[in-house]
Design goal:
The complex is a heterodimer of chains A (502) and B (448). Chain A has 502 residues and is an all-alpha fold. Chain A has 20 helices and 3 strands. In chain A, β2 and β3 form a beta hairpin. Chain A is globular and about 75 Å long. Chain B is α/β, with parallel strands linked by helices. In chain B, 34% of the residues lie in helices and 26% in strands. In chain B, the strands form 4 sheets. A 6-stranded parallel sheet of chain B has the order 3-2-1-4-5-6, with helices on both faces. Chain B starts with a strand and ends in a 5-residue tail after the last helix. The chains are: A mainly alpha (502), B alpha/beta (448).
Chain lengths: 502, 448
């Protein structure tokens, strides 16, 4: 033995951080607990979950060592484990409550992981049998997932340069990869306020509009939907999702989904008094352009096919709402878009791969990566005419490193490979149990879960449920939601030998 | 005037030769034989020694000198020499540097290095190249305020689009001032309703970009625009700065640089320049990239030999105008004799700039126009100057002379002069003045 099997990851640092996060989880768990007390519903699900969080968190902290240095590897390990264990703890209340489809541990983990990864794919069949506190926990866990990903995206992934994330708009270009902790804390503080503020604003707007237009949008629903629109998450306590509410409320949800998928660092800079940065930001313009283009195309298809009765306002509203919902990766629905004409559903399928801006709560591939990839493709065309030309790819005027472009390509390729793999697994597994699933529906469900969007087509449509899939498929989906949400690399890197030993 | 020059290279010698007839000049050089040689060539006092040391400077009597010029080949030696000189007395110090980096530091705070003026060879050469490329129609062009402001005189041809327009119609540019118009032998101060005629010579003062834009109006035929193909061969500092200045003037040059890493640097910093990474002496490549159809080729490689080769090659391929950077002054004529249109020698350019600065009186940048009928002067306003704290129109109305404030720079950025602009201490003012009043006007820059 020459020491090459020695573990080169200071896993104690990761354990310490993970344990701390699990202990923090007690705070959000008390929120549904209070709701349960208010509505006189069982409190056991949350008390057990709190106990599990404290037990697990305490154990990890006992194993951990705060003195160890949290470097890039330790951060990858911690991120992957945190997302997994928080989902596990999040599933506890569903299992303890023991009502409906989510009483089964795998389904509970699916629901919890779908929430934490702000996916919004559900296995609920009957919404009415669940307690209001349990339904609120689904919303809270999504909101937490949104906050978690914001901190992860702005402080950790951009520092580690995962898949070109280092290109993200940043307040000041600090690159000190060896000392992540102070940077995480600092960024979290900035982002936290903005995220909470946006959530409160959304809740206020929804409540006010609810009072004016729709009694169903009471305080409970206003808070529940504020949690999941700013997090671009997509769970709704209503079986009809946003379709349950008055059109005015549907219009009001749209800007919050878009804000949730806009870079929070950019928003922060704009709010600090530099509104020009908004239009100078090429990713933002590209993102809005993409959103507008797909919306326009879907609206035209809907008008031509007369899907929504041919009336102008509903057609445009449904086009804008559902395209925004898919592109921002929220996953609400204002109507059952799975029933639209094929041309429209194909467009929505395409829209699943876009995503919002890097540094937001959005999922999927994200506009910055597409922008860099498209620009570098255009450069390829140019250099095929002028082979000697040296032409840096520029985003918002600044040149992009060639290594970063390679990262972006690798990320795109990896996404496509994993998506295709999952789609095949979904289709094969469905065939195994004799489930009637078209290739398009299999691809839709695979994209929607792996890219953390939520609803897809067919059985997995916005008014459908993932409970229709075999248990084994859902198990695989849980893993891919997990991998997809934290930008793949932090999970995949754990499966390389080099990560642990060299 | 007593002047001390450190460095007896081409630049130092040229400056000394210019100053020697009228002034007392001491030249310091490390090379004893060079120093001795110069004593026979020029009527100057020479001193062998290290120009940065106190000992040598004391021997050269720097404490009582009026002008101290450090122009050796080494940037740091020049800056240190200026610093040393300032500890001995208060001469006006001029440092020559090659790299623009030191110039940028000095621009940020002009007390840096103890230099009162920094002349950057590479930047100056690039400015010269860009002037030759961009303003072929101008009769006279001079930079002011460290290149932020340009004065240019154009002859308006009868067929020019500007002929027949009034000044208000012709002056479409924010940071451009019409200073004066020479018509036959008369000097007319430009007013808004003055009509420009064919044959007039117009003097404008403004940012280099606006002067360039005006040139396009005056002489659209000869002034290059974006459709013109400009190729810079060689990504040296001179080549890079030339491309950067051309970009500032809305021209989009192409650049050929052999080194991949340098090409990447150039491409990143020159967003509007197409950089090609290849050997510029490869004829097949040049033809493939249509360099033979270029309007202007600039040879800015590191050595004279390669510049000669590229220039000849470009001429043979049929390029209209070839401009070459020639490092050794003695080759300038050789280049021009074999048909290269313009040969620019960085050392001569530097020497000229330093001389221009040191001639008349200290710290006064001057251009003489039309057989000294008028001058364009630059001055920095002292705190107690009668011009400070008042709107321009009041000051000018009091002056019984023909003065036009052409440009103002404050903290290295432009302030467009208008009648109600209030001047501040520290402002650099570039003004067009009738020659008899120059003395009276420049005296106003100082405190009363």
């Amino acid at each position: 033995m020459y020491g090459n099997t020695r573990i080169r990851v200071d896993w104690r640092a990761s354990a310490e951080l993970t344990g701390r996060v699990l202990l923090y989880l007690v705070a959000p768990l008390t929120f549904p607990l209070l709701i349960a007390l208010y509505f006189r519903e069982p409190v056991a699900p949350f008390l057990v979950a709190i106990a599990v969080a404290i037990g697990l968190g305490g154990l990890l902290r006992a194993l951990g060592d705060p003195e160890e240095n949290l470097g890039p590897r330790e951060a990858f390990l911690a991120v992957a484990v945190i997302w997994l264990l928080v989902a596990v703890v999040g599933a506890v209340p569903f299992v303890v409550a023991g009502v409906g489809t989510i009483a089964h541990p795998v389904n509970a983990l699916f629901e919890s992981m779908s929430g934490l990864t702000t996916t919004g794919a559900t296995v609920l069949v009957d919404f009415s049998i669940h307690d209001r506190s349990i339904m609120m926990w689904r919303q809270v866990i999504q909101w937490l997932g949104g906050l978690g990903i914001l901190i992860l995206a702005t402080a950790v992934l951009s520092e580690l340069g995962v898949g070109g994330a280092q290109l993200m708009e940043s307040e000041s270009q600090t690159r000190n990869v060896n000392k992540l902790t102070p940077h995480i804390a600092e960024t979290a503080r900035l982002i936290w306020g903005l995220y909470v503020g946006l959530t409160l604003l959304a809740a206020g707007v929804y409540l006010a509009l609810g009072l004016a237009f729709d009694p169903r949008m009471g305080p409970y629903n206003a808070i529940a939907h504020a949690f999941t629109s700013v997090a671009t998450a997509g769970f709704s306590p209503e079986p009809l999702s946003a379709g349950a509410f008055h059109p005015v409320i549907q219009w009001a949800i749209i800007p919050f989904m878009i804000l949730g998928s806009t870079s929070f660092v950019l928003m922060f800079v704009v709010l600090k008094g530099e509104p020009r940065r908004l239009l100078k930001n090429e990713e933002f313009r590209f993102y809005l352009g993409t959103l507008g283009l797909i919306t326009g195309a879907v609206a035209v298809v809907l008008l031509l096919t007369g899907e929504e009765g041919g009336a102008l306002e509903p057609t445009i509203r449904h086009a804008v709402f559902n395209v925004a919902s898919i592109v921002t990766t929220t996953g609400y629905a204002s109507t059952d878009f799975a029933l639209w004409a094929p041309a429209a559903t194909y467009l929505l399928f395409l829209a699943m791969f876009t995503g919002g801006m890097v540094g937001s709560t959005t999922c999927s591939i994200k506009s910055l990566r597409w922008l860099v990839a498209l620009k570098s493709l255009r450069r390829e065309l140019f250099t095929s005419v002028h082979p000697e030309a040296v032409r840096p790819v520029r985003v918002s005027g600044s040149p992009v490193d060639e290594d970063t472009i390679r990262d972006v390509y690798a990320y795109l390729l990896l996404s496509i490979v994993l998506f295709v793999g999952l789609a095949v697994v979904v289709a094969v597994d469905a065939a195994r149990v004799g489930m009637d699933l078209s290739a398009f529906e299999a691809m839709g469900a695979a994209a929607s879960t792996f890219l953390n969007i939520g609803p897809a087509f067919g059985e997995a449509g916005p008014y459908g449920t993932y409970a229709a899939f075999p248990m084994s498929t859902r198990g695989v989906m849980v893993v891919l939601m997990w991998i997809g949400r934290i930008e793949m690399i932090p999970v995949l890197v754990l499966f390389t030998k080099a990560f642990w030993t060299s | 005037m007593h002047a001390v020059i450190v460095g007896a290279g081409e630049v130092g010698t040229a400056i000394a030769a210019d100053l020697a007839p009228a002034h007392e000049v001491v030249i310091i050089d490390r090379d004893e034989s060079r120093a001795e040689e110069l004593t026979y060539e020029l009527d100057v006092l020479t001193l062998a020694g290290d120009g940065t040391t106190l000992e040598t400077q004391e021997e050269a009597n720097v404490m009582d000198t009026d002008m101290f010029i450090a122009c050796t080949e080494d940037d740091r030696t020049n800056l240190v020499a200026c610093g040393t000189a300032k500890t001995l007395g208060d001469p006006f110090t001029i440092a020559r540097t090659k790299q623009p980096d030191y110039l940028r530091v000095w621009e940020r705070d002009d007390s840096a290095y103890g230099a009162d003026f920094v002349v950057c060879t590479d930047l100056l050469t690039a400015e010269n190249i860009v002037r030759v490329i961009g303003l072929p129609a101008a009769i006279d062009v001079d930079p002011f305020a460290g290149g932020l402001v340009q004065m240019a005189e154009f002859e308006v041809a009868a067929g020019s689009p500007v002929a027949g327009q009034t000044v208000v119609e012709a002056d479409r540019f924010e940071s451009l001032t019409f200073a004066g118009i020479f018509r036959d032998d008369a000097l007319i101060l430009a007013r808004g309703d003055t009509r420009i005629r064919g044959g007039d010579r117009v003097v404008v003062i403004g940012s280099p970009e606006s002067v360039q834009a005006f040139a396009t109006d005056v002489a659209p035929e000869t002034t290059p625009d974006r459709a013109d193909e400009i190729v810079i061969v060689g990504g040296t500092e001179v080549g890079y700065q030339s491309a950067r200045l051309l970009e500032e003037r809305s021209l989009h040059p192409r650049m050929i640089e052999r080194d991949d890493e340098r090409s990447r640097f150039l491409a990143e910093n020159l967003p509007n320049t197409m950089v090609l990474a290849h050997d510029a002496t490869d004829t097949e490549f040049l033809v493939r990239e249509h360099v033979d159809e270029a309007d202007i080729v600039v040879a800015a490689l590191a050595t004279d030999e390669r510049n000669l080769l590229v220039s000849v090659l470009a001429k043979r391929l049929g390029v209209d105008r070839v401009i070459a950077v020639v490092d050794s002054a003695e080759y300038v004529t050789v280049f021009e004799e074999i048909g290269i249109d313009v040969a620019i020698n960085p050392r001569l350019v530097t020497a000229e700039e330093i001389t221009r600065f040191s001639h008349e009186s200290i710290a006064e940048n001057i251009s003489v126009l039309e057989n000294d009928r008028a001058e364009v002067v630059e001055m920095e306003l002292a705190a107690g100057s009668p011009l400070v704290g008042r709107p321009i129109q009041e000051s000018v109305a009091e002056l019984d002379s023909k003065v036009v404030i052409g440009a103002i720079t404050r903290d290295r950025s432009h302030v467009t002069p208008r009648g109600d602009t209030v001047l501040q201490a520290g402002d650099h003012v570039v003004a067009f003045v009738e020659t008899p009043f120059v003395g009276e006007f420049t005296a106003m820059s100082a405190a009363i």
